[in-house]
Amino acid sequence: MEKRVLAFDFGASSGRAIIGIFDGETIRLEEVHRLENTPVQMCDTLYWDLPRLFHEVKQGLVKAAQSGGFDSLAVDTWGVDFGLIGKDGHLLELPVNYRDSRTAGMLDKAFELIDKERFYKITGNQFMEINTAFQLLSLKLQRPEMLKNADALLLMPDLFGYLLTGKKRAELSIASTTQMMNAVNRSWSETVLDALGIPKNILPEICMPATELGELSEEICRELDIPSAKVISVCGHDTQCAAAAAPTEEEDFIFISCGTWSLFGTETDEPVINEKSAALNITNETGYGGKTTFLKNIIGLWLIQESRRQFRREGKEYSFADLEKLALECEPFKCFIDPDAPEFVPVGNIPERVREYCRRTNQPVPESVGEVMRCIYESLALKYRLTFDEIRECTGKEYRKIHLVGGGTKDGMLCRMTAAACNCDVAAGPIEATAYGNIAMQLIAVGAIPDIKTARQIIAKSDNVKLYSPENTEEWERAYKKYLDIIRN
Q1: pLDDT, tens digit, 9 for 90 and up, residues 68-90
Q2: pTM of the model
């Protein structure tokens, strides 16, 4: 018999509801609903529009029921953000977007409370002001009544799970993004919580991925006139779903989950926490099967997405294909940026910030749309190369292939540049890696697939993967040296 499971996959800019249909050999994907995930600015705070997102979840449930039904469902989302539930079971306020300015300066505040080296040794997380720990520290310092009134903190996939079932849990992979979890024993770190003044009682019990959370609530089933179904806690962090779907049989492999963010990393049996990884600020997250995902968060297609929105604000309409074509027409290796420079995180005029970065670093300033895009594309590829070198330095391993999965696989220019910059074959696909990983873990949870190794073999048979080989590597090697000089000075 066919197994039909429903995956809700929310990225930081869009979301979709996809049914995975497993016939015993391959998984066929059927998209039943797609939506934009647009934050809303209100009273100087940038919020996620949770009521709209939950409405879209309901639309996805109805459409999935009408298209043939489903045996189970699961939700994965971006990391670090959360909702606070009050003692009456209601949300205290809308979840705040990680790009909000409330965390400015919180890293330095945190290091006054807990030694930076000790902090990293406990959590193994890359220090980023967007992380949950620093969002909570901002509440502790600026709005302490919010934490006093909270009964539970639910990270975004767990929040959706609560709204669907009424059950409060903290799934392991999403908990590992918070900078509040002990990376070795995989429990909430009392040392970190006590140092930052975060109450432990608001943090739910951590549960393993691919376990049942509960049943769809009777209220939702009545409202939507749909049958009940199991709700599964898969890896709630979309990166871990994507990593689980990398179609490889190699024990040691590199992946790039390329979307709004680019998550560049590898799987290891244990956390990699040492002086090198601390100095390079590389993170350890927990994935499926107790594996550690040793990776770096890199600002990714956000730079292109937000640039396109800026051009639209200026009355210029470009498709992504248009932007790629304009970039290809421009002179290569003219100027570079560090994609992770702090000025590129907030919403706004990314093209002008690119120009200002180039002025400040005494480079030729990209004026045209194509020149700005060329600068962004090449800088992303060279940032991947830098991270590739750092991962190899920390693990002491060599990798034969880079698996690029997610929306970035549609961007042939970025795939070619990545292969050339890293001097390594790039296997691009699947596009819907996150959905495949979500679906695979549901199928494991219900006993339809025995393990993740088998799941990856099935995914490899179910989707096309395109191979890109390195070209013009000497030119890219020269560009890489120039890039390092610019971002390190």
Answers
A1: 999 999 999 999 999 999 999 99
A2: 0.92
CA distance 98 to 144: 19
- Catalytic entry in 81, 238, 411, 463: 238
6's CB contacts (< 8 A; 6+ apart) are: 17, 18, 19, 20, 60, 61, 64, 70, 72, 73, 74, 229
Cα separation, 478 vs 181, whole angstroms: 41
DSSP state for residue 77 in the 8-state scheme: B
Distance from C-alpha of 163 to C-alpha of 231, rounded to nearest angstrom: 11
Residues 378 and 336 sit within 8 Å (Cβ to Cβ): yes
In whole angstroms, give the CA distance from residue 360 to residue 22.
54
* Spatial separation of the C-alpha atoms in residues 441 and 457, rounded to whole Å: 14
**Which of 20, 27, 76 lies closest to 455 in space, CA to CA?**
27
Residue 249: the pLDDT is 87
pLDDT digits (tens, 9 = 90+) for 23-48: 999 999 999 999 999 999 999 999 99
Residues 402-450 pLDDT 10s? 999 999 999 999 999 999 999 999 999 999 999 999 999 999 999 999 9
Measured distance CA(346)–CA(348) in Å, rounded: 6
* Average pLDDT for the chain: 97
Q: Identify the bridge partners of residue 3 per DSSP, sorted by sequence position.
A: 22
Could you tell me whether strands 150-155 and 425-428 are parallel, antiparallel, or unpaired per DSSP bridges?
unpaired
| Interatomic CA distance for residues 375 and 372, integer angstroms | 5
238 is catalytic: yes
> Distance of alpha carbon 423 from its chain centroid, rounded?
25
